[in-house]
Target: Ribonuclease J
Amino acid sequence: MAERLIYLPLGGAGEIGMNAYVYGYGAPGKERLILVDLGVTFGDMDGSPGIDLIMPDLAWLQQNRDRLEAIFITHGHEDHLGAVGHLWQRLGVPIYARQFTGALVRLKLEEMGHPANVVNITGPRPEVTRTGPFTVQFVPVSHSIPESAALIIDTPAGRIVHTGDFKLDGTPVVGDPFDPILWHDIAGEGRGIKVLACDSTNIFTPHPGRSEAVLANPILEWVMAQKNLVVATTFASNIARLKTLAEAAIASGRKVCLLGRAMRRMVSVGLETGVLTDFPDTISPDEAAGLPRNQVMLIVTGSQGERRAASAQLSRGRYLGLQLKEGDSFLFSSKTIPGNERPVGRIMNALSELGVDVYDADDGLYHVSGHANRPDIEALHELLKPEIVIPMHGEHMHLREHVQMARARGLQAEIAVNGTMLDLTGEAPKVVDQVESGRLYLDGTVLIGAMDGIVRDRIRMALNGHALVSVIVDEEDNVLPDAWVELMGLPGRTRGGDDLARHVEGELAEFLEGADARTVGDDRKLDEAIRKITRQVAMEEIGKKPEVTVIISRLMAD
Amino acid sequence: MAERLIYLPLGGAGEIGMNAYVYGYGAPGKERLILVDLGVTFGDMDGSPGIDLIMPDLAWLQQNRDRLEAIFITHGHEDHLGAVGHLWQRLGVPIYARQFTGALVRLKLEEMGHPANVVNITGPRPEVTRTGPFTVQFVPVSHSIPESAALIIDTPAGRIVHTGDFKLDGTPVVGDPFDPILWHDIAGEGRGIKVLACDSTNIFTPHPGRSEAVLANPILEWVMAQKNLVVATTFASNIARLKTLAEAAIASGRKVCLLGRAMRRMVSVGLETGVLTDFPDTISPDEAAGLPRNQVMLIVTGSQGERRAASAQLSRGRYLGLQLKEGDSFLFSSKTIPGNERPVGRIMNALSELGVDVYDADDGLYHVSGHANRPDIEALHELLKPEIVIPMHGEHMHLREHVQMARARGLQAEIAVNGTMLDLTGEAPKVVDQVESGRLYLDGTVLIGAMDGIVRDRIRMALNGHALVSVIVDEEDNVLPDAWVELMGLPGRTRGGDDLARHVEGELAEFLEGADARTVGDDRKLDEAIRKITRQVAMEEIGKKPEVTVIISRLMAD
Model:
């Protein structure tokens, strides 16, 4: 059969997070493969209580591991590289990334005890990486972290441009500007662009995006206007923003103190790799605590309300010897990611209780997005003139809107969510397969499947409480008097004021007394009967049916 | 001691939700009291899993029940009357409300089996209710539900205006307009306004609010432009919006079908009480299913992503014989309340998967807020010229901003969060007490305290999982071989691939074998030791410490 070019997202398509995109070229079922990005997404109490990190289930890729050539990482955000430390071993192939990104990937690998030398540091275009049927170039694009790259993936079936995350920023403060002439040249080479796999995050934002550089003046003016201690929070990886904030501090006679491990790490990797130059000297929390309040700016982690980050700690009181007070000022130089409104609100209110004046970026003065807005995406379509547009990095509604926009412009376009394999060889993309895709949860130190039922049981316990029943059956299949009931996460008293556990025990005792030998002799039947009674009694007495675990102990004759 | 005028919020101050405000007049500690509003707030998985309704803990009011004269309900929103059915019995005093609101209060009471005749239907000013030292008038204000009222509370210490929820809307479509001349008169009577207790919800919104009436044209144009089935969702209680939507449907040749119990109930109470007139005839879901798609508009509940409401049901597939399809249109004529972004997003994406075009109100065309914005609040301050402003109906940051605004205008103002008692007798408000305040959770059919630990245990099980250990000790204080371990919400396998429960059992068996008689003979010690080992072993094997429940069964000699 003829060779074909395939695209298969395993993460990031139908969601914003845990990016992982597979491209393949070869005979059907025998394509040689590359993986672009290997990121995480973050758990939440709603859908995944107790889970910090969520990553793509790579089962399909593991089954086809012998066909996988390499992993390419576009940039250093967690949703693009955060799973490398946890999943690299399952794939075992070389990783390619630019210098700053590569340094972050190496840290991830080292943390998990893997060899850092599997990372190959790759320069930007015109440097090329040849692997299997693919020739790959990293093309600098602007984004909210330095050294972001789009990938040019040349294959015998034509040229793919995989944008990664990008915006059209000619003055990004730190990192590479978006260069339309460079992209014009790329589009003009050879047969042009066959496929554009394109960031869809901001497809619903109607106005053109704004440059990182527009923030310098508003931020400086804001800092100048503050009379006491100034605190600013933003995404740790937004090194350009850190620089803008720090320079505003220096210009207004303040020293800068960085709080939060992620922030210090990003700045140090930035300096080590040469991406970041001229970052002002920083001072320690001790030094900051010793200076007059109007001579200090803290730049801190936790813009999304993370419970253990510096912002949250400061909002709760003393942290590393520093304490916020009436008249201090706190700037969220960040956007609240949907879903984080409540934790961010909690911090803002806690700061308000301390008398701290809180400023956010809602009016656009103190934050710009790192993603291309709708007109910017259109401009990229126009610049690259691809035959086919495949929207990625978006929830279903973003992908759908992006497809509609591309089609309205006369381009071929198709929605492919995680697990959908597209054949891109012909004029129009064609769905050719649905493969198993899913999510893995990092639970403590163990990777579990999202569908394993473990987290489902936790959610059920959280919603319904948990009743435990212990029953002892003696050597002659007699149930010892009184089942023992313990409740966890359930009201202790019934509506009528009785002790709920004792009440359930009474009902169970009555049942067990009259239970027939067939039921008592059969673990499954006994378990089922006890569970049913417990749930019924609870429903009557407190109006809810708890999860029930029954432990049946059978005494053995010596 | 001289008599004094006090204000004591028990809900709604320091949060948006579960409003409950106490006013009192009399000798300190002997004030006669009234309660304004008795609302609920809604639980979430984050902070209160398994809890649907949260309401104020009225312990203080119950202790002082003999001093309570009456309850006044300002309007029919759940956060102002939702707790009446659950808590009225603890107070046992008459309830006063206007007709539409009163009808809703009666339904709440009847649902819980309480006498509906405790509700006294009260006309608007100039009708007065005298109770104890208070003379109370309901003054119509505009809001997002009909018959909203501010209260004028006249006391020997002066006049209080309690705004309830309000906006400055001269053309609210349904219900009373805001009448500045009326308020001018009220401010000019007698000694003027001593205290303004004022809605703070939109204090951070810088532009003047917009009238409900501005939506009619955009909504009509939107409906006219749609080619297939049209669905619109909004808050069920926003009867003006329902009318605007329904009239747009009729004007564009569509029949209207209402889906969702709350929506049908609101419309029928609106019609019965005469608040709503000229609402178009509606059709049943069956009839709707039988008509061509371009002749129907569904108006449905679930604008906040509620899992069981009509919007969610429709997004998941067939509902009451109706099924959305490619080319249908779905309008969120509503704002997403902070914290609901994820569930609303889930519905939007599910609709996108069905091929439905989703429209939201982000550009302001299809929704207006029901609350006064910052300039509107300023205008009310100006109109009423109160001596003292007490901000309410807001999180701490809203209250603080409102106080700052009032002070900047030369007014006395003070933040009082739930439980803070203010003395309003003098020129400036004075904090005179902090009373116990808190939250009650409706868990199934039982009211539990938020601090009882029940929900805390559920959250812990959700985050950490739950390990159950059953141990049997015989008549001679020997532990029977093998503790039995059951896991709920925990990985079945250790990092090394072993069965986790069996592994913990092994470690426990080893401990129990060597345990001394003092430990085995003492339930508390044995429990503690088993719990500790279980947590340690789990930490080593899966990197997390579960909640542990130990059941020790001691066999008795016959």
Remarks:
- The domain at 454-554 of chain B is CATH 3.10.20.580 (Ubiquitin-like (UB roll)).
